[in-house]
Every structure is written in C-alpha cells, then in structure tokens.
Amino acid sequence: MFEILVSTAWALSRHRDGPFATERHRYLQHCADQGGTPKSLRLKARSILRVAEHMSPDDFGHVDAHRLHEIILESVSPAIPIPTTAATLLSCARPWLKYLGWWPQAQESIQFAPVLNNFVTWMRDERGLSPCTIEQWRYRTSKFLQWCSDTGHDLATLQPPDIDAYFVTYGARRWSRISAGHIAKMLRVFLRHAASTGTCSAALAGSIQGNKQYALESLPYALGWDDVRRVIATASGDTERDIRDRAILLLLSVYGLRRGEVASLRLDQIDHAGAQLHIWRLKRRQPQVYPLVPSVGQALRRYINDARPNVTHAEVFIQTKAPRIPILATAIYTIVSRRLRALDIQVAHLGPHALRHSCAAKLLADGLTLKEIGDHLGHRSTSATMTYTKVDLAALRQVGDFDLGGLQ
User: Is 266 helix (H, G, I), strand (E, B) or coil?
Assistant: First the structure.
C-alpha cells in the first residue's frame, strides 16, 4: 500500500519504518478497499504518520480525545504546510484510531434497556414484523422510555395519567394529530407486551385512547407528473452523482419503491437480458418481479458500467465519497429532498415517499384499479392504497408499458 502512495525512496522508507507501521498499513488498505481515492489515501497516510510519530508506546491500544489533542499540538508547528492543519490531523487520526479499536467509544445510554430489547426480540421473532417497522417502533419506544426516566417514572408504578402527561408535555410540541394516533397505537402494543412480562400494569394499554381519525383526511404527497420529470431532469449530468441519482429517481418514480428497497437493491436482482427487475418487498417479505422499463434499464446500465466504483459490494448504489460502501436508506431521502428543494417544489413531504405517491397517482390517473396499484406498490391490503382515490381516473394502461412522458 505504501508503495503506491509515495513516489520517492525516502518517503517510502519513512512510511515503512515509522511507528505503528502495521496499524497504519492495515487501515489504509481498508480505506482503499472501501473505494478511497488515491488523493484521499495519500492525505490519510501523511496525517496518521505524523500523528504516529508523536505517539508514545503507552498510547498503544488506547488514545482518548485529550491525549489526541496533545499529540496533535506536539506535531503542529508554523512550518507545517497549510493542508496539514490540526483539523486535518484530527479528522484523519480519529477514524484510524476507531478502526483499530483504540478510541474509547461512548456507550449509548438507553433507559430500561432490557425491556426495550425484549420488545424488539418479540417484534422480530414472534410477530415477524419487517425490519423497517421494528426500527421505527424501537425508536419511538426508546423515546417514551427516555421520557419516563427523565421525569422519574418507573414502569412498575406507571399510571394512566402518566401516559396522558407524555402525550401532553412531550408529544404536543412534536407530533401532528395523525402522528399522535400512530404513536398511541404503538404504545398500546408495547405496554401490552410489557404487561405480559409483569413489567407494568395490565390496565395501562387499555387506558390509551387514540384520537379520532377520518378516512382520507390527509392530503396525498404526490407531485404532478410534470414536476416528476423536472426532478429527474436535474440528474441529467455526467458526474457519478448525477448518473447514480438518475437511476434512483427513476426507480422511485416508475416503480414506486420504498427507500429501503432502493438502498438494498443488489446487482443480481437486475436481469438486463431478460428485461426484468426483481424486488424484495419489505412489507410483504417476498420477491416481486417487474418488467424492466427501457429508460430505467438504460439508467441502471449506465451507472453500473460507467460510474459505479469498482467495489465488491453486492448492492447497486454506492456512496460517492469514501468510504465507498452501499448507501443507507436514509441517504435516499437526502438525494430526493435536495433536488426537490432546489426546484422549489412545494409538496407536503420532501422525500422519496413523494415520488412513491406520484407513481400511484399516475397509475390511478391512467386507469389502474386500486388492487393493481396496490400490487405494483407492494401493499398488503387495498386499504393502504385508498389515499390515492382522490386522483381522477382515466384510461387503463399496463404497468409494464408505463408512459414516462418524455423521460426516455
């Protein structure tokens, strides 16, 4: 690794013979495997070498923030060139130390952790909920348990008025009426489970009264199809980011995929020869096969062949900056919202779900039934598709012949 990062024998000797050479080499190789560019690798190599040269044998295995600050102050002098500032040394050294396991990690403080872990295990093993739902409910439950801790409440002595206080004092400033209804439902499930293990009173779950909701009371998040074309047009450039984002935007708009389904899409799920796209539906927990629309196939082929970095990951979409690892589902939101905001498009939801709604609205306007739309979107029941009935119906079209209206 050192051989390909430096160009002189003197520099190579310095890197090879410097302190903690094995640890530095291993980290740099890891960064290279993750898709680090030669420029970034050279910067990392120089920076961690300078830090290593000012470390003592006592630093082996453990370097905390205070000690790293001392090391960097010792290594920085007015003679050091501008690119190698204290901030650069810190930003390069800290990931290196974390990779080695030498950086003390702050443990996440979760109140009533055993109760929360039991609930997560029950959701996964007994209820068989999807990973997305489990993560959402875990997050909401942890917030409730943290509130209990902060306000001095114990689950064993929790009373119905305490639950009311949670919604009034904590939720009123954070949740819409509809969100409060969803959280009430989640808390009833959690408290029933907790009561079944003797952790809290069995009366708590029944005391939670969800607010009244009305069918179709919320507005759809759909963009007009002209706006969908405008969003996709923003990714018409030749940069790696634009080529990648165009493929992502088309998958969201044409197939109405969830962000997690896009992020988890693997190379072996794209059958260019057979013109098929195989998607693992998160809610149904089963595969679904789509015809590969030509424009989507072309965008995917261009990204994979021309722009995707040469990494060993099976997932299709990779971060454009090091570490070159698959993008997370949360990154899909950033990709979409950034482009919606740049166009100043006004919708209720500035994320990938807006394009999912747009797909459903387009299919409905083209005459597909709710059952057909639900199948296309991977819904488990027709009721989940009912929000799209606000869109006017038109002539029936086949999903496989989805008209992109100029997006070719």
Answer: strand
376 is catalytic: no
Dig out the tokens for 304 from the structure.
């994979």
Among the listed residues 349, 357, 362, 379, the single catalytic one is 379
Confidence of residue 62 (pLDDT cuts 50, 70, 90): confident
Whose tokens are 């190789």? That residue is 29
Overall CATH class of domain 113-207: mainly alpha
β-sheet with 270-271: strand ranges across: 270-271, 276-281, 286-291
Establish whether 173 is a catalytic residue: no
Average pLDDT over residues 279-292: 73
pLDDT digits (tens, 9 = 90+) for 68-90: 888 887 766 544 444 446 778 88
Catalytic member of 281, 356, 357, 376: 356
**Burial category of 376 from C-beta neighbours within 10 Å (exposed 0-12, middle 13-18, buried 19 and up):** buried
Q: Is 30 a catalytic residue?
A: no
Considering the candidates 193, 258, 308, 376, report the single residue annotated as catalytic: 258
| Active-site residue, selected from the candidate residues 44, 324, 353, 376 | 353
The tokens for 259 are: 């962000």
Residue with tokens 């993560």: 135
Cβ-Cβ contacts under 8 Å for 340 (sequence gap 6 or more) = 231, 347, 350, 354
Q: Is 27 a catalytic residue?
A: no
Contacts of 257 (CB under 8 A, 6+ apart): 251, 279, 356
353 counts as catalytic: yes
Q: Does the domain at residues 225-401 carry the CATH identifier 1.10.443.10? A: yes
Q: Catalytic: which of 30, 283, 301, 302?
A: 283
What whole-number distance in Å separates Cα of residue 126 and Cα of residue 122? 5
Dist CA 258 CA 54 (whole Å): 49
Each residue of 101-142: pLDDT tens digit? 888 865 555 567 889 999 999 998 888 877 767 888 888 898
pTM over 0.85: no
Would residue 388 show up in a list of annotated catalytic residues for this protein?
A: yes
